[in-house]
Design goal:
The chain is built from 18 helices and twelve strands. The chain has helices spanning 2-5, 7-34, 39-49, 88-102, 104-119, 132-146, 152-164, 198-204, 207-222, 238-245, 252-268, 279-296, 315-329, 355-370, 399-414, 432-440, 460-476, 478-500, and strands spanning 76-77, 169-174, 178-181, 186-189, 228-231, 271-274, 304-309, 333-338, 390-395, 422-427, 441-442, 450-457. Strands 2-5-6-7-8-9-10-12 form an eight-stranded parallel beta barrel, surrounded by nine helices. Residues 1-64, 179-183 and 190-203 have low confidence and may be disordered. The structure holds flavin-adenine dinucleotide.
Length: 502
C-alpha cells in the first residue's frame, strides 16, 4: 500500500542501493591506491589549519574543537527530505515511539510497564514470550523498532530491508546477556543454560565463555559480507570479567573463541567491533582488542575495531598509545569512536566536566584522525612519526558530529589530501533522520557514505532488557528525541499533503 501511495519511495531506495554499491567499490580501490603517496602533502596542508587539538595529554582541555570542515558543502546533497525513503509502516511506528519518548506523561507508565516485564518471573500471564497478546503487542511496536528478529530467518530478512534502504549493512549483537552478580559471585545467563558456579566450571571448561561463543557463532549466521559483528566481551562471564578487572588478557578459552570468530569473519568479509564498557574492565578489553588487531588487521584493512569513549578525559592519550602500537607493529588501527554510555555508573571525575567538552573532544578526535594528524603522529611537527594505518568508525547520533565528519572526508578526498576510510553508525530505531541525511551526502562521484544500523537480535525474553535500555536512553536524550519527533511529524505531514493534493 505504501509503495502504491508513494511510488517515489521504491525508486529512491533502489537508486540509493545501486549508487552506493557502485560507489563503495570505487572508494575502496581509490583509497588503497592513493593513500600512501599523498600523505606528506596532506599533512603539510592540514597542519596549517589545525595546530594543537591533537595533544595526547591525559586531560586535554577542549575549549573548542576547531571546525576544519569546509564552510561550503562540496558534497552533492539530495533535495529530497531525508526521511522520504522510509517505508510508511516504519515511519508511523517511529512517529508513535518518538511521540511516547518525548512526552513524560506517556513515557513514564510505558517504562514502568517495560520494567515490570523485564523483572517479572511470571510463567504465563506476564511472560513476554508465552503470552501471545503481550508478545504480539511488544513485537509490533517497540521490538520491531529496535531489534532485527527473533530467529535467524527474521533477522536476515530485516537486515536485507535495511540494506534495501541504502545502508551498507548492520552491526549485529546477540541479545542474550550474561550478568555477573557481585553479591552472589555468580553469573546468570538469561534464558538457556542454568546458573553455574563459574569458578568450578572454569577448571574444565567455562560454560559462560562457551555460551558466549555459541551466541556469537549464531549471530554470524544472520549476517553476511559487509556486515559487522559487535561483541560485548564481559558478557562471557565472571572469569573474563575478573581478568579484565586486573587489566589482563582473558583466559585462553576466551582468546581462542575470539580468534575463532576473527578467523571466520576474515574469511567471510565481516568485521568485528569490540564494544567499550565500564572503565573497571576497559584496560583488559583494550589489551584484548589490540591483540586481535595485531593478528587480523593487515594489508591496510581493519577486520577488528576497538571502541574509544570520547567522554573520558584520558581517551586522546589512549588513542595515541594505540597509534604507537599500530605504527610499531604494522597493523591497522580500527578506531570506533563513541561519546560513551556509562556516565551514570562511571567515576564522574574520569569524564569531561561538561557535555560541551565531550562534544569538542569527539569532534577533535574525528578531525585529527581524518586529517591524519593526531597524538604525536602526522603533521609537520611529527614528520618522523608518520600517521599509521587507521580506519575510523563514527558511531554517533549527534547530527553535527556525523555531518561534520562526512563533509571533512569529502573535502579531503576531493582536494586529493590524505585521509582515512570512514564509516558511520546509528542504532536501529534511533536518529533515522541523521542516518538518512548522511546517506544523502554524496561525494562528487555520487557515492553515498557507508552508514550502518546497529541492532540486536534474539527472542523477546532475551531482548526485553535491551529494549528497556533503549527506552531509557531515549528518555534521557530529550533534545535529540524532540528533534527526531519534529522531523518525523514533518515527513508525515508532507506525505499527507501530497496525498490530498492529488
Ligand atoms: C553504533 C553505536 C555503537 C555504540 N557502541 C558503544 C560502545 O561500545 N560503548 C559505549 O559506551 N557506548 C556505545 N554507544 C553509545 C553511545 O556512547 C551513546 O549513544 C552516545 O554516548 C550518545 O552520544 P551521541 O554521540 O549520540 O551524541 P549526543 O547524544 O549528542 O551526546 C550525549 C552524550 O554526551 C555525553 N555527556 C552527556 N552529558 C554530559 C556531561 N554533563 N558531561 C560530559 N559528557 C556528557 C554522554 O556520553 C552522552 O551519552 C554506541 C552508539 C552507537 C550509535
Amino acid at each position: 500500500m505504501a509503495a502504491s501511495m508513494f511510488p517515489e519511495l521504491r525508486r529512491v531506495s533502489l537508486q540509493g542501493l545501486v549508487l552506493s554499491n557502485i560507489g563503495r567499490r570505487k572508494h575502496d580501490l581509490e583509497f588503497r591506491g592513493s593513500s600512501k603517496q599523498s600523505v606528506s602533502k596532506g599533512v603539510r596542508t592540514v597542519h596549517t589549519t589545525r595546530k594543537s587539538s591533537t595533544t595526547a595529554s591525559n586531560d586535554v582541555a577542549f575549549k573548542s574543537a576547531p571546525d576544519v570542515t569546509p564552510k561550503t558543502n562540496s558534497s552533492r546533497v539530495s533535495t529530497q527530505p531525508p526521511l522520504s525513503v522510509m517505508p510508511m509502516g516504519m515511519l508511523l511506528r517511529s512517529l508513535m515511539i518518538s511521540t511516547i519518548s518525548s512526552h513524560r506523561s506517556l513515557l513514564s507508565p510505558s517504562l514502568r510497564l517495560l520494567s515490570f516485564f523485564v523483572h517479572s518471573s511470571s510463567k504465563y500471564i506476564f511472560n513476554v514470550q508465552r503470552n501471545p497478546i503481550v508478545h504480539g503487542l511488544l513485537k509490533t511496536t517497540i521490538y520491531n523498532q529496535f531489534c532485527t528478529g527473533e530467529s535467524v530467518q527474521e533477522t536476515k530478512a530485516c537486515v536485507q530491508r535495511l540494506k534495501d534502504l541504502g545502508f551498507k549493512g548492520v552491526i549485529l549483537t546477540y541479545a542474550k546477556e550474561i550478568h555477573y552478580d557481585h553479591k552472589s559471585k555468580k553469573s546468570h545467563g538469561m534464558g538457556t543454560h542454568a546458573d553455574c558456579d563459574v569458578k568450578a566450571a572454569a577448571v574444565v571448561t567455562d560454560a559462560d565463555i562457551e555460551a558466549w561463543r555459541l551466541g556469537n557463532l549464531k549471530t554470524l549466521e544472520c549476517i553476511a559480507e559487509g556486515d559487522i559483528l559487535a561483541v560485548k566481551t564481559t558478557g562471557a562471564g565472571q572469569s573474563v570479567a575478573e581478568a579484565f578487572t586486573t587489566g589482563s588478557l582473558p583466559p585462553k578459552q576466551m582468546l581462542d573463541a575470539l580468534f575463532e570468530l576473527g578467523t571466520i569473519c576474515k574469511q567471510r568479509g565481516i568485521q568485528i567491533i569490540v564494544d567499550a564498557e565500564s572503565q573497571h574492565f576497559q584496560e583488559g578489553i583494550d589489551r584484548t582488542a589490540i591483540e586481535l588487531m595485531r593478528k587480523f588487521n593487515h594489508d591496510g584493512k581493519a577486520i577488528v575495531y576497538n571502541t574509544y569513549q570520547a567522554y573520558l578525559k584520558k581517551t586522546p592519550s589512549v588513542i595515541a598509545e594505540h597509534l604507537a602500537e599500530a605504527a610499531r607493529d604494522g597493523f591497522t588501527l580500527g578506531l570506533k569512536l563513541v561519546r560513551g554510555a556509562y556516565i551514570l555508573s562511571e567515576d564522574r571525575s574520569l569524564i569531561h566536566d561538561t557535555i560541551e567538552n565531550t562534544h569538542n573532544a569527539y569532534n577533535s578526535i574525528v578531525a585529527g584522525v581524518l586529517t591524519r594528524s593526531f597524538g604525536g603522529f602526522g603533521g609537520e611537527e611529527h614528520q618522523k612519526n608518520p600517521f599509521p594505518s587507521v580506519q575510523l568508525f563514527v558511531a554517533s547520533h549527534n547530527r553535527e558530529s556525523a555531518l561534520r565528519a562526512r563533509r571533512l572526508h569529502i573535502q579531503r578526498t576531493k582536494s586529493g589530501l590524505p585521509t582515512v576510510p570512514i564509516a558511520f553508525g546509528q542504532l536501529q530505531g534511533m536518529s533515522d533522520e541523521v542516518s538518512f541525511s548522511l546517506l544523502q551526502q554524496k561525494d562528487e562521484f555520487g557515492e553515498a557514505p557507508e552508514v550502518y544500523k546497529c541492532s540486536t537480535w534474539g527472542i523477546m525474553n532475551e531482548c526485553i532488557a535491551y529494549l528497556l535500555r533503549r527506552a531509557v536512553e531515549n528518555r534521557d536524550a530529550v533534545l535529540r528525541t524532540s528533534d527526531e519527533l519534529k522531523a518525523l511529524k514533518l515527513e508525515t505531514k508532507r506525505r499527507l499533503r501530497s496525498l490530498f493534493s492529488r
